[in-house]
Amino acid sequence: MTRIANLRVLDIRAPTSRGLHGSDAVHGDPDYSAAYVILETDAAHAGHGITFTIGRGTEVVCAAVEALAFHVVGRDVAEITSDFGAFHRRLTNDSQLRWLGPEKGVIHLATAAIVNALWDLWAKSAGKPVWKLVCDLEPEELAAAVDWRYLTDALTREEAIEMLRAKAPGRSAREAEMRRDGYPAYITSAGWLGYPEEQVRRLCREARAAGWTRFKTKVGIDPASDARRCAVMREEIGDGCDLMADANQVWDVPQAIAWMKHLEPYGLRWIEEPTSPDDVVGHAAIRRAVGPIGVATGEHCANKVLFKQLLQMQAIDYCQVDACRLGGLNEVLAVLLLAARYDVPVCPHAGGLGLCEYVQHISMIDYVAVSGSLDGRCTEFADHLHEHFVHPARVRDGRYVVPEAPGYSIEMHPESLEALAFPNGSEWRRA
Amino acid sequence: MTRIANLRVLDIRAPTSRGLHGSDAVHGDPDYSAAYVILETDAAHAGHGITFTIGRGTEVVCAAVEALAFHVVGRDVAEITSDFGAFHRRLTNDSQLRWLGPEKGVIHLATAAIVNALWDLWAKSAGKPVWKLVCDLEPEELAAAVDWRYLTDALTREEAIEMLRAKAPGRSAREAEMRRDGYPAYITSAGWLGYPEEQVRRLCREARAAGWTRFKTKVGIDPASDARRCAVMREEIGDGCDLMADANQVWDVPQAIAWMKHLEPYGLRWIEEPTSPDDVVGHAAIRRAVGPIGVATGEHCANKVLFKQLLQMQAIDYCQVDACRLGGLNEVLAVLLLAARYDVPVCPHAGGLGLCEYVQHISMIDYVAVSGSLDGRCTEFADHLHEHFVHPARVRDGRYVVPEAPGYSIEMHPESLEALAFPNGSEWRRA
Fold first, then answer.
1. Which helix (H) or strand (E) holds B35?
2. Average pLDDT, stretch B110-126?
3. What's the pLDDT at A1?
4. DSSP-assigned beta bridge partners for residue A243
5. B115 forms bridges with which residues in the sheet?
6. Alpha-carbon gap, residue A142 to A161, rounded angstroms
7. CB contact under 8 A, A67 and B57
8. What CATH architecture is B4-136?
9. Looking at residues A204-219, what average pLDDT do you find?
10. Where are the CATH 3.20.20.120 domain residues in chain B?
11. Of A34, A129, B77, B92, which one has the greatest count of Cβ atoms within 10 A?
């Protein structure tokens, strides 16, 4: 029995806006940040979990974590994980706190930090990385981690168990393949909107030399400069590589459709977040209009009910699940199952602070246990801030190297937690 | 020139859970609460605004208000209101804070409290109730209060101005009619789920005697007790009165459809929140299946983009806009215009703390300036906590009496703010 003795939450921020890292059409000056949760126990391990934010307001998410803490402090870890779906329902349906969402925004970001810390703790106790812990679960156990409420018109628990069972025979072969080859990735950090052209060219060349074959650029300023940006990237990476574009929610629906005409010459694989992340109907209309360019979204998709509808309405070609926009891994598992049910590839959102560390586990789970496919899949990578993690994400030849350390790879060095503590850490005192 | 010198935010809670007031299928023990904003100025008036919450977590919304405050403190009120739509965009699209939503959950609830306080301040300065201030705006001015982003595939600013212009001729006649007759309402506070049957019977009889002809009950426990509850209400109010039912999001889509078969005998006018408030596709499916019972939703509808889709997908018969779930009156105006465009009646959500005070203005605006119709309209009323307001909502013969005091009717008595302050007010020290 491992009892959660205490929950600590830290406001952690990196001053990334100084270099315009992460800049896009609507987030001009992100300071990559996190509400960082530590679940202290009476056993050997502590559980670490973060939710990613971009600066101001991280203190609000920390306040929401404090409000939810009473649901875990004093509880036994195995009691929670043995009926994890029911626990998830209790956490997201607290009779008073649910008014603040339900299951969206600040309260759901806070839920993710706590829930992911529980998975980290469970995996450390089991001596396995999170992906391996999940892939070793029986289909019934994995399905029991999901709160099935609101999903049954698209997928029931029983159907999910059948799907998982059908994929079970190939699991160990796929595991071995991943350990040998790694998981396919694409790189975003060459194409931030705030970077001057020469910096973009240099970063593209360096990335090509390092084995990258899939690239993403930011768009959404004006058609001429967007076209220029795509042309520069295409020139540097050549026709044999994939190029994706990300508009970060900047357009109305008719505007997105018109704008994409200007970008047709650059052979884009997808346009990401062309409009409001809440607009299922709008994404479906855009998708019908801009093919063969695919439509991708998900990093701001508030919960599994939104993903369910994006899939039901055939509104997306790529499902960009986020590790902490949803209420932690339990809800991510629900979305992996829904996407497999609708045969839509999952290409997780990453970058920021810790998201690459998280999503390598999610993509492993998707391939080994859920979809069993790499068709159309590639996982985002951005080369920022990995030095702060005890077990940082690693890439080789444009692919994620399978993480092997026990846990969810999200624990940061104590020195980093000190340096990035806001507003009194050494990094901020220096500024 | 009126400068906003300071923003104060208070955590206000009423211990309503002690009497099971407000109890329903998912909110078993609400303590009606508010993040209460005061905009102090260098002029005669202060602006007051609240966002409604139900207890735990109100402190999180207060933290979000503090995070947004720098957008208003030091600003001139007329500078804000003269281009109110642009200001609303700045507030909801702060380059870092928008990550916490965007435009949903805690950060949007906080936005509402600030924005509604600005309207209160503007109306007090103009010496008019908010509804009258809005109805006296030129169509172009009213449309300029809306941020049109993400709406243009359903309704453009120019189309909205045309709609408003077409309704302008009858405005003063409708105003006079409302001052004479009041605005039609329905009552919820007879049918809370936690009330025993005898209490429900007594409250129904008292409400009938006071002139009420429209009633709502809570459902969603089990088909047998729901049927019993509907039968009791129908017995007391007779066949000539309207009866509505509210499930507060408790069902999955197939379950909602099946459950409503059990409630067919009771002649329900609508079923409210049959499933997840985010499920546009699900509401559309339920609506197709349960007619002639109507489908109503909106109190948890996160923003205008969700309402747009509910209307585009013909998913609702009644649009239950909320005064502070959306980002304040500017966004409510957008939804009134959208609903009029799709010819769906707006029946605002109310009850709680201060919501009746707010929505009487919204319904007046809808009738006088926007839709010009009462067909299918009635506005919620619950008889709790009005004594705390300086200008409380009043009803007569089951209709709201038109508010005439300058402002948004949301200012509370100083003694109430002291008594309900959490956790140190006299009401809580006594508990």
1. strand B33-41
2. 98
3. 83
4. A215
5. none
6. 8
7. yes
8. 2-Layer Sandwich (3.30)
9. 96
10. 167-415
11. A34
Q: For B248-279, write each residue's pLDDT tens digit.
A: 999 999 999 999 999 999 999 999 999 999 99
Q: Which one from A45, A88, A308, A349 is the annotated catalytic residue?
A: A349
Superfamily name with CATH number, domain A167-415: Enolase-like C-terminal domain (3.20.20.120)
Q: Which residues 6+ apart lie within 8 Å of B205 measured at CB?
A: B236
d(CA B78, CA A1): 62
Question: What residue ranges of chain B are covered by domains with CATH 3.30.390.10?
Answer: 4-136
More confident residue, B62 or A26: B62
Judge whether residue A401 has pLDDT over 90.
yes
B219's torsion region: left (phi>0), alpha (psi -120 to 50) or beta?
Answer: beta
From the DSSP assignment, how many helices (H) and strands (E) are in chain B? 17, 12
pTM: 0.98
Q: Name the 3-class secondary structure at B34.
A: strand
**The pLDDT of residue A20:** 84
Question: What angle, rounded to 10 degrees, do the helices at B329-341 and B157-167 form?
Answer: 80
Angstroms from A197 CA to nearest CA on chain B: 23
Angle, alpha carbons A335-A341-A342 (nearest 5°): 95
B128 contacts chain A (CB < 8 A):
no
Q: Report DSSP state, residue B402.
A: P
Q: A271: left (phi > 0), else alpha (psi -120 to 50), else beta? A: beta
Residue A126, judged by CB atoms within 10 A of its CB (0-12, 13-18, 19+), counts as middle
- For B43-86, the pLDDT digits (tens) are 999 999 999 999 999 999 999 999 999 999 999 999 999 999 99
Do the Cβ atoms of A115 and A328 come closer than 8 Å? yes
Q: Which of A106, A192, A322 is the mutation pick for testing B, counting most B CBs within 10 A?
A: A106
Burial status of residue A106 (CB atoms within 10 A of its CB: 0-12, 13-18, 19 or more): buried
Partners of B244 in the β-ladder = B216
Q: Burial level of A428, CB count in 10 A (0-12/13-18/19+)? A: middle
Q: Is the pLDDT of residue A431 over 80?
A: no
Residues of B whose CB is below 8 A from A67: 56-57, 59-60
Question: Which one is catalytic: B128, B218, B308, B384?
Answer: B218
Distances (CA, A) of B166 to A152, B10, B141, B151: 45, 42, 15, 21
Q: What is the mean pLDDT of chain B?
A: 97
Residues in chain A within 8 Å Cβ distance of B193: none
Residue B58's H or E segment, with its range, is helix B58-68
> 3-state DSSP call for residue B243?
strand
Residue A304 falls in the annotated catalytic set: no
CB atoms within 10 A of CB A70: 12
Mean pLDDT computed over A323-327: 98
In this predicted structure, what is the pLDDT of residue A430? Answer: 86
Show the tokens assigned to B429.
């020290």
Q: In this complex, do A150 and B101 lie within 8 Å of one another by their Cβ atoms?
A: no
Q: Place B20 in a pLDDT band, splitting at 50, 70 and 90.
A: confident
Pick the closest to residue A45 from A126, A128, A127, A125 (CA basis).
A125
Residue B329 has which token pair? 């009156």
Whether residue B90 lies within 8 A of chain A, CB to CB, comes out as no
